[in-house]
Write a structure and sequence with these properties.
The chain has about 290 residues and is of the alpha/beta class. It has eight helices and ten strands. Strands 1-2-3-4-5-6-7-10 form an eight-stranded parallel barrel, surrounded by five helices. A two-stranded antiparallel sheet has the order 8-9. The protein is globular.
């Protein structure tokens, strides 16, 4: 497996990624990054600027495992809005290609106006699934042309609400360039929180051929009268990361594991945690 830095001290603009920052990433034990460059508009960022970042990362032996997909609404019934979302995602793929990114990560979006990961009853309709398939089919040729994996992330609150529905949608899109980023916490239900090995294995059994990367995030139930499953830093909850690592390694030793939900202060502990698990499981950490 490969370990990638996900967020934390990484900035929102490629202008702010420096040689010193790259050395810090390497010193922490990561061989690549996933950065959400929210301030770099995919429609207007110059190719030369993206290529300069690509060269900087290469000079320090770093890969860009993932870039952001900008979290647009791919399921809206408003065809004008959907077309604009597709145009943004296509631009994100091109920008990622210029940066040398292996892939981009995005969700399907949400009909909730307050955020792309917030719940709305229209997220789970047949219409939303149909619109998502249409959007992804329109982006697949661009992903192929750019050599960038379009990795979809699911969650119980959005259209990709289960591994089974995600597999159905990706099978319908039917492109090797439209794939899945597996997030270890997003599909875990209340009754699975404390004993999630069976659920994780089911996710991989259903989706294995589509999974190309992993956001390694933990989850736990909070002591509240209204149901709340809190996600966060690996090793602070109940996710069976041994099974996650074994299943990811079985798919490919080259696939990146990107710990998520961490603060910058958590990083040394998190790297040590995954290195210890990898050593226990005899899984090499590749550079």
């Amino acid at each position: 497996m490969k370990l990638g830095l996900n967020g934390c001290f990484l900035p929102d603009s490629m202008d702010d990624i420096t040689p010193a920052m790259c050395r810090r990433v390497r010193d922490l034990g990561f061989s690549g990054i996933f950065t959400r460059l929210r301030k770099d508009n995919p429609h207007t960022t110059p190719k030369a600027k993206a290529q300069a970042l690509r060269a900087l990362l290469a000079d320090h032996g770093l890969s860009m495992f993932q870039a952001t997909g900008y979290w647009q609404n791919l399921i809206t019934p408003d065809e004008n809005a959907r077309a604009e979302s597709v145009r943004t995602l296509q631009a994100a793929l091109r920008l990622a290609g210029w940066m040398g990114a292996r892939g981009i990560d995005t969700g399907p979006g949400s009909m909730n106006p307050n955020g792309p990961w917030f719940p709305h009853p229209d997220n789970w309709t047949a219409s939303a699934r149909k619109q998502l398939v249409k959007s992804l089919k329109e982006c697949a040729p661009v992903a192929m042309d750019c050599g960038v994996l379009l990795s979809m992330e699911g969650h119980q609150l959005v259209t990709l609400e289960t591994a089974e529905i995600t597999a159905e949608i990706l099978d319908e899109v039917n492109s090797p360039w439209v794939t899945c980023d597996y997030d270890s916490a997003n599909w875990i239900t209340l009754k699975e929180v404390w004993h999630n090995t069976e659920a994780i294995n089911r996710h991989f059994d259903v989706l294995g051929k589509h999974i190309v990367s992993c956001h390694a995030k933990d989850v736990w139930a909070e002591d509240k009268l209204a149901l709340h499953l809190q996600d966060g830093c690996p090793s602070k909850g109940h996710i069976d990361f041994r099974t996650v690592l074994m299943r990811m390694h079985a798919l490919s030793p080259d696939y990146p594991i990107l710990p998520e939900g961490c603060t910058t202060e958590d990083l040394p502990q998190v790297v040590a945690y995954f290195r210890a698990l990898a050593a226990e499981l005899n899984i090499p950490i590749l550079d």
